[in-house]
Amino acid sequence: MHIASLKEVVSAEEWQLRCDLAACYRLVAAYGWSDLVFTHVSARIPGPEHHFLINPYGLMFDEITASSLLKVDQDCNKLSESPFPVNPAGFVIHSAIHQARESAGCVLHTHSRAGVAVSAQKCGVLPISQQSTFVLSSLAYHDYEGVALRDDEKPRLQADLGEANFLMLRNHGLLTVGRTIADAFLSMYTFENTCRIQIDAQAGGELIEVNPAILKGIAEVSRTVTVGQGAGALAWPALLRKLDRMDPSYKT
Fold first, then answer.
1. Cα torsion 135, 136, 140, 144: sign
2. What is the pLDDT of residues 142-178, one digit of tens each?
3. N or C: which end of the chain has fewer CB within 10 A?
């Protein structure tokens, strides 16, 4: 499959965003969070037009490149030439969040086994791991309303999310919101591991919960352990080096 390079066609800013988003898709696949060609990672293109980049519907996440990403508007109308369609169902969720949160540079959604499993548990995320403390500091829940096809779900989704950066879609999966693609990815890394740890721990003996007092200061702890840069900025360059060693074709 050959897709012509857009490097000389789009702005340098958009090209960098495309490379980062393509890298994010490849990393989602590498860490085992993808669901064949389903789910999305969306990124807002800076500017007043409210345009977004999203995956072409039909490509596996480990096939996605910077040039193959589609440009769409707020209503998921395709704005760039491509032999692939867009999946409007999932974009209902993404467009609702981008619309409500101007700071949402990236929205990442998964249907992973552990994430869906915890989303189906009445207790939701339990404070039983260090990872869970970071999630619980900014976690919201949204009840399942069926496959996300209807625009009338958007106001309820927006209200449930509020200012949280982690959203558990009940009976559905996980979602993270980030100022940057790196932030959204690192948040999902923590969210996914939180759910995997919880499912594993529940298979054993009685659980020990983290002292609630520890949760109250977790935002300051996060700033300290990431030396004020944030987890995304700190880990993203290393993740890109990892990806370059595996397969640098995402940058084409």
1. positive
2. 999 988 778 889 999 999 999 999 999 999 999 999 9
3. N
Q: Under the phi-then-psi rule, with left for phi > 0, alpha for psi from -120 to 50, and beta for the rest, what region is 233?
A: alpha
3-state secondary structure of 12: helix
CATH number at residue 104: 3.40.225.10
**Which residues neighbour 215 within 8 Å (Cβ) at sequence distance 6 or greater?**
127, 133, 136, 137
Single out the residue of 55, 72, 76 nearest to residue 3, CA to CA: 55
Q: What is the pLDDT of residues 225-249, one digit of tens each?
A: 554 567 678 899 999 999 999 999 9
Specify the 3-state DSSP secondary structure of 123: coil
- pTM value > 0.90: yes
Q: How many residues are given for the chain?
A: 252
Query: How is residue 63 written in tokens?
Result: 């096939």
Task: Confirm whether 101 is domain-assigned.
Answer: yes
Are the C-beta atoms of 24 and 108 separated by less than 8 Å?
yes
- Domain-embedded: residue 252: no
pLDDT digits (tens, 9 = 90+) for 79-102: 988 888 888 777 889 999 999 999
Number of domains in the chain: 1
